[in-house]
């Protein structure tokens, strides 16, 4: 990638001269933007990712509305027709308001008539196929112990709040009260006040909806008490619990899996072997499947149906649901525009159909070639770095390099597109469309069992502003929509591209070598390829990084601290990604001197680009919510805390003791 005649990619007018980069790189770059920017009323946070996502949303709306929707009842034939029909069904607010909660009345009536636990299990299984129920989180992926085959993962589930901590920690006491009131309000609006007409309120002055809400919430509390916390639930070695069908049945004797699978329309052979991720949480929920809990389960299922359908019902129900899940939980005061939610609905239903059109209209193929070159430099920089690691033995180093050699980059869009020909869509049937999409996806996923692994499959759409590392496939994936400013521009100088998208590439490669990704080999198999001494040395380094983050509290968090253990994987990705991106930039120069552009050295442009990529403002409610559940650290620390550990940053800005971002050399962490 040539450095000549390229823009720096850094807007000098945006830099805040009142904040020294040696004290706060994040606000030196983003402070002016933060001072003048109000978080949009429909957002809980706003920044670089959100701006690009909004742009992609607008582009997708133009694509969707470019084809007239077939009339209701006509049945869409082509993919473009189906996309248009899905959107039209969501945008028909007049019909939605006329129907109110009628689309789910039959389902709620069915739930109210459940007379036994075996019948409950059958109904929940049937509703799971339709996207309206389910005791557990269940999905299909390749088997960590045998990555050449697909297997079902059974995960803890059953909660309406974000995480088990919301049911027990003092800081969420007010949220718990609001949640119970919210359940009662939603049940009232949906006309689902009683799970059984014979059931009477037990507390004087309690309304039927409050009674049902209390039953549902109480059961969720009992389920939550068995859940693993977020830290335990990201430990792949603890989570990889292979069970035969007989062993799964023995773990959950109260749950008739044969009946459950039959109701889902799945063969028993689909669960011949499963990964029971959190065994005690899985058995803990099943232990509650007893007749004494039947009324609570009916209340729970009634609430699950209402909650899962609210966005598809009247505007009143949709808004009421947002007022808790949006405003109370994240602080966003206003619901997103209907058209934006319509775009999200279409993308969640036929994302690759939209993505194919998005790529044709908006993806610059030149970006793919430039990204290939960037990835190549990053891979080679990792190779150089791993080869020279002082803390790693030759034996483990050989396996690490072997894994690096097997990395598969995917850039822009899939080589083959998903086929939606089996999906039936009607522009006059929003709820039915959603149900049919769920059944289509259920059948598509189920069909994977027993088939060869499809390594061409993507797990993000091209119009998604994000990237990911998949340990089971040992691949790094960069959708088209992230390949634009402030992350990437083919006209930018190399230093800026390496500091932004280069560090993102490095971050995703780094996930292959973080505390969890490093437990998979180059073929995606969960196997211990480390010597004991090397793993100990690695954990000493990661432990020091955990301690750094455990001491941090972001603006707006009222002193609530970052959880260094929860965020360690992402922090390793950030640290390794930025450090290796810097080495890759130097490597790309081929020994030439880094040019000065707009008065900025290559090193300065590199770190300024890193900072502007994490530009974001967040509401206090959202900041606190993310601290509890998000494996990513707050953006200000993704910027500032990482650079404190890099010698190149200290050299670039001539930091010294007393500067806020100074960190003694002995305390700096360098892993990869």
Automatic annotation (TrEMBL):
InterPro entries registered for this protein in UniProt: MetalloPept_cat_dom_sf, Peptidase_M13, Peptidase_M13_C, Peptidase_M13_dom_2, Peptidase_M13_N
EC numbers, comma separated: 3.4.24.-
Peptidase M13 N-terminal domain location: 21-414
Region of interest: Disordered: 1-23
Annotated GO biological process: protein processing
Family indicated by similarity: Belongs to the peptidase M13 family.
Protein name, entry field: Endopeptidase
């Amino acid at each position: 990638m040539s450095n000549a005649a390229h823009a720096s990619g850094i807007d000098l007018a945006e830099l805040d001269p009142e904040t020294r980069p040696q004290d706060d790189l994040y606000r030196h770059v983003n402070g002016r933007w933060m001072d003048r920017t109000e978080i949009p009323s429909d957002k809980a946070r706003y920044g670089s990712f959100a701006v690009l996502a909004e742009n992609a949303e607008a582009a997708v709306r133009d694509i969707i509305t470019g084809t007239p929707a077939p009339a209701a009842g006509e049945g869409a034939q082509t993919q473009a027709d189906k996309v248009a029909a899905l959107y039209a069904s969501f945008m028909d607010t007049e019909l939605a308001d006329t129907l109110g909660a009628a689309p789910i009345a039959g389902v709620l009536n069915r739930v109210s008539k459940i007379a036994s636990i075996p019948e409950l299990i059958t109904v929940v299984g049937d509703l799971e196929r339709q996207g309206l129920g389910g005791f557990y989180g269940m999905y299909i992926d390749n088997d960590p112990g045998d990555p050449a085959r697909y297997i079902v993962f059974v995960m803890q589930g059953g909660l309406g709040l974000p995480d088990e901590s919301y049911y027990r920690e003092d800081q969420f006491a007010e949220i718990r009260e609001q949640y119970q009131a919210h359940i009662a309000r939603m049940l009232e609006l949906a006309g689902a006040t009683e799970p059984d007409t014979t059931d009477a309120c037990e507390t004087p002055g309690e309304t039927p909806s409050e009674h049902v809400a209390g039953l549902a919430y109480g059961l969720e509390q009992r389920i939550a008490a068995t859940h693993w916390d977020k830290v335990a639930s990201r430990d792949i070695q603890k989570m990889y619990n292979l069970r035969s069908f007989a062993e799964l049945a023995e773990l959950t004797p109260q749950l008739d899996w044969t009946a459950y699978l039959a109701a889902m329309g799945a063969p028993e052979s689909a669960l011949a072997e499963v990964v029971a991720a959190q065994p005690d949480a899985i058995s803990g929920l099943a232990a509650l499947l007893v007749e004494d809990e039947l009324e609570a389960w009916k209340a729970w299922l009634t609430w699950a149906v209402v909650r899962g359908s609210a966005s598809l019902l009247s505007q009143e129900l949709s808004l009421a649901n947002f007022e808790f899940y949006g405003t109370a939980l994240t602080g966003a005061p206003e619901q997103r525009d209907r058209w934006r939610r319509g775009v999200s609905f279409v993308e969640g239903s036929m994302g690759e159909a939209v993505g194919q059109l998005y790529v044709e209209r908006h993806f610059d193929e030149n970006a793919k070639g430039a990204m290939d070159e960037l990835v190549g430099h990053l891979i080679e920089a990792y190779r150089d770095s791993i080869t020279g690691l002082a803390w790693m033995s030759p034996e483990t180093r050989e396996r690490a390099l072997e894994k690096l050699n097997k990395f598969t980059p995917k850039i822009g869009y899939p080589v083959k597109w998903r086929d939606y020909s089996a999906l039936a869509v009607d522009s006059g049937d929003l709820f039915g469309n959603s149900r049919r999409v769920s059944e289509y996806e259920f059948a598509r996923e189920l069909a994977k069992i027993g088939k060869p692994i499809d390594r061409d499959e993507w797990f993000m759409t091209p119009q998604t502003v994000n990237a990911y590392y998949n340990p089971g496939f040992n691949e790094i994936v960069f959708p088209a929509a992230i390949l634009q400013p402030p992350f990437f521009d083919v006209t930018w100088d190399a230093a800026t591209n390496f500091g932004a998208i280069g560090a993102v590439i490095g971050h995703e490669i780094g996930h292959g070598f973080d505390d969890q990704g490093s437990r998979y080999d180059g073929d995606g198999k969960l196997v211990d390829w480390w010597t004991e001494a090397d793993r100990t040395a690695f954990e000493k380094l990661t432990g020091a990084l955990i301690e750094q983050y455990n001491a941090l509290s972001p603006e707006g968090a009222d002193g609530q601290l970052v959880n260094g253990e929860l965020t360690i994987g992402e922090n390793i990705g950030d640290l390794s990604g930025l450090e290796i991106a810097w080495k890759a930039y130097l490597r790309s120069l081929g020994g030439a001197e880094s040019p000065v552009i707009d008065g900025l050295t290559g090193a300065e442009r590199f770190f300024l680009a890193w900072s502007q990529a994490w530009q974001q403002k967040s509401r206090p409610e959202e900041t606190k919510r993310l601290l509890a559940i998000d494996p990513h650290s707050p953006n200000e620390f993704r910027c500032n805390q990482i650079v404190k550990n890099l010698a190149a940053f200290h050299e670039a800005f001539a930091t010294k003791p007393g500067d806020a971002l100074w960190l003694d050399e002995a305390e700096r962490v360098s892993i990869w």
